[in-house]
């Protein structure tokens, strides 16, 4: 293991923080993690790297964390498999198309060739004909109601891709805890922003 947070920089590695309680993984660049540790008064010595950190997954907050260097090309955080670059690009492009038509498809048919190709890509990975067919049928219906929009079938598609291990699950991150008092923030807490002084108070 490295002795200091600056050690992975020379090898181009990031740092993966893993929660021993819920299994949540979070990847940091050494520079970003160093800034965060400086804000909360943490140490950059590797043995004490996670001492003042907490799991940032919403509703967890555990302190049983582990830090490991992450070599380039490793699997993404919270993913059960390593995804190839081509697969990641194909899925990203297909989902971008579907998200775009979902946002602009209110009360109009959007069953275009572009959408059809995107759904073919999604089906290749999700292996679920029902969710793909549901999206296509709604996209072709220009008279659908607001409640019958494309957001629901798109969410189902994402759920299938997450279940199959092609997408990382959505995670809500809690903001860093801010010390609410005027006294110096203890380790593990972010210092409050300085209160601006009015001109008449400076005189």
TrEMBL record:
Region (Disordered): 184-203
Protein name: Transposase
């Amino acid at each position: 293991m490295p002795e200091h947070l600056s050690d992975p920089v020379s090898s181009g590695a990031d740092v993966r923080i893993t929660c021993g309680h819920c299994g949540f993984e979070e990847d940091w660049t050494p520079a970003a993690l160093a800034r965060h540790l400086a804000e909360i008064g943490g140490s950059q010595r590797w043995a004490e790297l996670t001492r003042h950190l907490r799991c940032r997954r919403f509703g967890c907050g555990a302190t049983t964390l582990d830090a490991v260097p992450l070599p380039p090309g490793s699997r993404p955080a919270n993913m059960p498999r390593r995804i190839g670059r081509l697969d990641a690009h194909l899925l990203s492009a297909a989902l971008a198309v579907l998200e775009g038509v979902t946002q602009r498809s209110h009360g109009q048919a959007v069953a275009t060739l572009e959408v059809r190709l995107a759904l073919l890509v999604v089906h290749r990975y999700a292996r679920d004909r029902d969710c793909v067919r549901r999206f296509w049928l709604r996209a072709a219906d220009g008279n659908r109601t607001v409640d019958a929009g494309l957001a629901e079938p798109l969410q189902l598609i994402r759920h299938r891709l997450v279940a199959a291990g092609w997408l990382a699950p959505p995670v809500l991150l809690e903001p860093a805890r801010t010390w609410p008092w005027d006294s110096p923030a203890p380790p593990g807490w972010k210092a409050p922003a300085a209160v601006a002084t009015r001109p008449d108070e400076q005189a």
